[in-house]
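Lab notebook, page 48
Experiment: co-folding of the full assembly
Goal: obtain a model of how the components sit together before planning crosslinking
Operator: M.T.
Materials (sequences as entered):
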Amino acid sequence: MTSDGRLEKVLERGEFAVTSECGPPRGADPEVIRKKGELIKNSVDAINVTDNQTSVVRMSSFSSCLILKQLGVDPVMQMVTRDRNRIAIQSDILGAAALGINNILCLSGDHQKFGDHSTAKNVYDLDSMHLIQTVKRMRDEGKFLGGDEIKGVPKLFIGAAANPFADPFEFRVIRLAKKVAAGAQFIQTQCIFNLDRFKKWMDQVRDRGLHEKVHILGGVTPLKSLGMANYMKKMVPGMDVPDELIARIKGVDKEKRAEEGIKICVETIQQLREIEGVHGVHIMAIEWEEMVPRIAEEAGLLPRPKVE
Amino acid sequence: MIIGEGKPIKEVLSMIEPYSKIILAGCRGCVTVCSVGGEKEVGILASAITMAREKEGKPIEIKEVTLERQCDPEYLEQIRGIVDEYEAILSIACGAGVQFMAEKYRKTPVYPGINTKFIGVTEEQGVWSERCQSCGDCKLHLTGGICPITRCAKSLLNGPCGGSSRGKCEVNPEIDCGWQLIYDTLKEQGRLDKLEVIIPINDWTTSRDGGPRKIIREDLKL
Amino acid sequence: MRLSYPPNIKIIQVPCTGKVDVIYLLKAFQNGADGVYVAGCMEGDCHYLTGNLRARKRVEYTKKILDEIGIGGERVEMFNMSAAQGTRFVEIAKEMTERIKALGPNPIKKSKSSLKNSDVEGQP
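Observation: model returned without errors.
Model output:
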């Protein structure tokens, strides 16, 4: 075990894991995170907190994870390399481990052009690959990147992201292999709407034997409306929302579309459970966190297993 | 070469507002090639400024000069004889030239008439794009001749990121994804194995982050 | 054709409007012209293929500069006509003359005349 967290235990036991995420508030009110955490904590094994997602300033992932920890949740701290250099990154890794945050998801991060501070300088001293290597080095070699010894080695379960729907498709699995070689232990994918493409990706994953080296959690997002589906199809880079899905939602009356979105999400999870090499699901119910318990229930994921 | 873009005329006018006698200095180097600071452009800018000032009722005398380069001390010497007759110098060379001009003629205020944008190439007449960020430790041999630091918006050394879509960058759909270009080139050359290896964490001391840079060639010094 | 056109037009002949550069247009205004127009061949009929297309782009660029310095981009214009179109030539001469009359004289002439002891002429 490389951490003391629930997520690692569930995955190592071979159980199908469930994670979800909380978006922190655009303010200093801890209640926002507490409420979201309370809503979903019994439906999941771990909760991610995003790190200034889409470059919009929010309460830090680090502090939000601490708030969740105080609720008894196993938080996954997302960390992007856009805003911090290696000095701040290693410092935060030590701090997170010191506060008992067990999981870290290593990302490059959305370019600041998307957010509300597009005139900022970006950092990208390291990329996500390097961040994975950094955590691994600190944990397994007990050394800083600069070479000095760490007194009080951090324990962390290392995660990374994968996007089977970005281009070039044939390269995505090679990149996944690199992340695994760098030290990634679990993967959360971008939300899956195109199951055929995802299955093809998983074929390539298994061909390389990667499913035995890393735990892959398939990402899912319930579509609240036709507008949301179209937005994600057209405006979000690296997102693949098939036309058949748009048609399916359109084919239902407007008041029933949210329900259909939940239905599609549950069906996706059920299909994911059948794919060899998928060890869990990551439910990203953006600004719809209250649906997570229901989705988990209907997908047959509850109750969560008991872990000591 | 170094590519620049003209500053808005209003901004230039506000810089030279207090003066009635200036030198407008162009450069026959890079800024001539990208049509922003050569002899032609000196003429155009001088005419525009002259008319703008006449309209305000505050005429200005402009000495138009185009030097071979403004980044070599010998060429800057060429205006030594006249510089004291003028109140300021407006230089439309690149940032290096403007600064060198300022260093050489410390008593005379020197103003930048263009914005130096990047090191780049001419894609076609009238279109220039960035290619190099002078990181100081060239990696082009690892990436099929395409720079990940310059052409990837996030300067990823192990890209592409999850926002690469249909060969375009998430930041701007008109910009190619640098890593897609790298992938395509290496694939065409049958050298995709290069991308199976992690390019290590970068040493940024050779780039701007390490502080202003200088090269000394003892073998060339007189 | 012996048609008459307004007497305030000074014609400068060039072998192709592709020869017209931005600096010539600006200098005309600097030396006191109230308006300038470039008369080129019909697009597609340029003997040098793209001369008149380049001229149009340069006229557009000059308009921007004139707007920025407060002279006004409407004072410069590009027109296309064939060499045989005498009546169109006259039409345009009249149109441009009316336009410039409405805009008034070149603003730098007003300022120049209001200056005493001004020894500033056209710049080199």
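Interpretation: The longest helix of chain A spans residues 257-273.
Next step: discuss with group before ordering constructs.
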